[in-house]
Specification:
The chain is α+β, with helices and mostly antiparallel strands and 140 residues long. It is built from four helices and four strands; from the N terminus they run H-H-E-H-E-E-H-E. Helix content is 43%, strand content 26%. Strand 2 and strand 3 form a beta hairpin. The radius of gyration is 31 Å and the shape is elongated.
Length: 140
């Protein structure tokens, strides 16, 4: 009984002594603060710059799928034909095994995508409209 009591008191005392308040000292390299400040400065500069030439992925919209198939050469041929007829529309190629997908346009509404699809019906037999992230169109 005395053994249990003394063991219990030792454990209880150890737990109580671990709960006392102490002082925490932070040890770090002084260059860390300068690196953090430099990173914040670069982030602010990047936020202030406006990207004028490149597209910015910004919203959900619609694209028209012009071609899909496993033949890469055929896909590039279809892209070339499309770009000849519609040089102002962007085309996007994705590959999901085993097929390549050629999609065109950055339309904000399904109605705009449907108009292109109606225009292309004779030349491209397998047309579909897909909702996905698009590049923000120029608002000229």
């Amino acid at each position: 009984m005395k053994l249990w009591l003394s063991t219990f008191l030792c454990c209880f005392t150890a737990v109580l002594s671990a709960q006392t308040k102490g002082i925490v000292t932070e040890v770090k390299d002084p260059s860390i603060d300068s690196l953090i400040a430099r990173r914040l400065e670069l982030s602010k500069k990047a936020d202030n710059r406006v990207k004028k030439n490149g597209p910015v992925v910004s919203q959900m919209g619609y694209r028209v799928q012009i071609f899909y198939g496993s033949d890469r050469r055929e896909m590039y041929r279809q892209q070339s034909n499309f770009k000849t007829d519609y040089p102002k529309l962007n085309t996007y190629i994705t590959y999901k095994e085993p097929n390549y997908y050629l999609r065109a346009g950055d339309f904000r509404t399904r109605l705009e995508a449907q108009a292109l699809m109606n225009e292309l019906k004779g030349a491209y037999p397998t047309l579909f409209i897909f909702k996905e992230k698009i590049n923000a169109p120029d608002l000229d």
